[in-house]
Amino acid sequence: MISYLILGVISVVQARKYLRRNTYTDYLNILQSPEAPSVSILAPAYNEEATIIENIRSLLSVRYPNYEVIVVNDGSRDRSLTKLIEEYQLEPVNFAVNYKIETKKVKNVYKSKDPAYNNLVVVDKENGGKSDALNAALNVSTGDYTLNIDVDCILEEDCLLKLMKPFLEETDKNMIATGGVVRIANNCRIEKGRIVEVNVPNKLLAQFQTLEYLRSFLLGRVAWGSLDGLLLISGALGVFQKQLVIQCGGYDNETIGEDMELTVRMRRYAREKGIDYVVGFVPDPLCWTEVPESWSVLRRQRNRWTRGAVETLLSHKRLFLNPFYGKIGMVSYPYWLLFEWLAPLIEAFGIVLLVLFSLLGVINISFLYLFIALIYGYTVAFTIATLYIEEITFFQYKKRRQLLRLVIAGLIEPLMFHPFVVYCAVTGNWDYFFEGKKAWGSMKRVGFSRPTDRGKRITGGGKGKKNKPNPAAPLPSNNVRTRPAT
Amino acid sequence: MREFLIDIYYFLLALEPRYKIVIFLVIALLISAAIMISIVLRERSRKNSIEARERRIKRQVEPIIQEIVFTEQDASQFKDAIKKINRIVDSTLYRRSNMNILNELILYYHRNLGGEAFTRLENLYREIGLKQIALENLRNGEWHVRAKAINDLSTMRMGETLFEILQYTDAENMHVRNEAQYAAVKLGGKKAMSFLNDLESPMSEWQQIRLLDQSRKFEYELIDHIGPWLRSKNDTVVIFALILMRHLNQYHEREQLRKLLYHRNEKVQEKAIETAIELAYSECIENLYEVYELTKNLRVKTAVLKAMGELGGSKEAGHLREVLVSGKEYELVMAAAKGLKRMGRHDVLTGYRENELSEKGENIVKHVLDDRI
């Protein structure tokens, strides 16, 4: 409880500081500058034919002076590539791919005949999974920095400007990566690939996740970012220093949680090489994504996140309480281990014991009820505090009715959503350790369960993908979140 | 009701201490949640009332500002207009907040207008007292208030405040310092850039970009200080001077580039090479060979090859060909091939004996010769 409170306080201070700084920030200077560093936007796509054209258009309209968009068709079985070729008048070119990182075979690299799309590169390769696609994009990219995104996310127009600012502002240390806040797009009104009206999702399940994302990004990651203890830059939105990513060997093909794994590996590498580095975080809402509105899709997603987190934590166990790695070894890693991995297991075990002891009559039932009420009270109070912080900082949910819906969801969440998340985390651990599910398999990414009409309001979603909100997100109560949705 | 409460009181009193503690905590948490909700709702009402006030002030003030900006007015009309605005924003409780609204409105107009309208808005800004408020904020505010005040003063081109602003160009707080440097360049032109002479704090790339953006608005003229800046102990000042040289065509100090090619900081080396290319400083070509041999940094090596392609002749074409044939790193081979293409040496790029080039080299040549990429 205390740790969440501390993180909450740090977040508020940081968010306010950020907002104060941005009251007079003018991004026009960099927008017009020939000195702006080059950025490659890496967008892996698998079976995204329903939305790919609109999404790429959205990426091509990002405000930044010096960037390229690299779309990797990761062996899609649908018409994703054909649609891209037709829409953007693509033709294969003699691109000499620099295989700095080993990937599945690149069949072709396409460029557009239309000079208006001069900064678009489409890579067609054999299916190898998200990590492999990202590595292929890295091999083709020419930018100094890479913005890694999920192709179906909606970016804010100024997203890249804001994410690059910490890199350009840092003078003392080597900024190796920055992440940004991912928000939920369900029920938001979208026009021409941009969010024009922010709404609270209609479905209760998505509302729970809205609260979870708020806690996770607004409180957790902002605080960890300011403490330079972030262990996860979401796969949905993160800028990385390309050279370092390549030196680290790129994305790990064998892991499920490739985003967290890369962040941890980069930090570890930088530390081992004596690089005085820092990882930044921008508290602004920069990216919007759909969250699952069905329990079964959510269960699969959370199960996968759990396995990803466990896998990463185990593969970097050397960090645990290792003073050589500084804050990540002494604080972030143990925090993750305890709160993101073990907490749900301990909680589930505790619940089983409580039930058992209650049946055996060895527990004072009235005190147990009181204790449950205490946890419930804390969870609710923490959620309301999150809404308050949102209110005084970024203030996205402007209608009073929306706020009340979130409050009501906050009252129900500890009783419905939280136990479900605990259950998913337990099954995720079971699947990892006893069923041997340690990888995505060859067809890793699932994509939207239904096509999304980007010209309208997103009324449902169902992707069981990426976008984990922050791991180290303050979870109310004895909360259990594995890694809140990236 | 009273009896009910008394019953509860005695019930609680009779409980064990641990029960009392937990009950107290639960009640405290629920009460805090309720209080926070009420604060949020109150905050919303406050925001709504501010927005309403803002709309009202804008509705009333905008026509007056437009009249000042777009029509010829004599001194008395101008005074009347100011009185009218003062009456609108005057309020015992909200004067400060109203002045902020007015400030933002004038800044907005200033950003979107030019010419005579510009000057009239600046007069209005002074006369209405906003300049004075900004100066007070600059002297007494917290860091963010000071930074904003400097930003406002420079946006409104309050040149008379330059000397006061110059005092902050090496301020401890980075944000105040950055705003002051930017304002100095904006208000004082290249002469005000003399703060770079003895700047000790590092300049971020962000700040360099901002200052460059302002500097590019200068009319072309030689910047005398560039020499000392290139010799500065502060590497970020050296880098910025190189950027200025490149973008403002400051040829007069290009002899110094030769020395900077051997700078201990690889970023400076890279920028010096880029500047040499931009200023067509081919006299340094022999030094570039040395740099190529001495450095292990791939980026610097790549920059050297690029420079050879841009500045070199047939000797350099030979060197590039050598790298193309025997280079191991993709980046170097690519840079060599691009260099040859830039030289127009398609004959070298295509005239290879069979098996002389590796598969990688051949692919790179095809890549470079493909104009669609």
UniProtKB/TrEMBL annotation, chain A:
Listed GO MF terms: glycosyltransferase activity
Keywords, ordered alphabetically: Glycosyltransferase, Membrane, Transferase, Transmembrane, Transmembrane helix
Membrane-crossing segments per the record: 335-360, 367-389, 415-434
Protein name per its UniProtKB record: Glycosyltransferase
Pfam families documented for this protein: Glyco_tranf_2_3
CDD domains, sorted: CESA_like
Region listing for Disordered, in residue ranges: 450-486
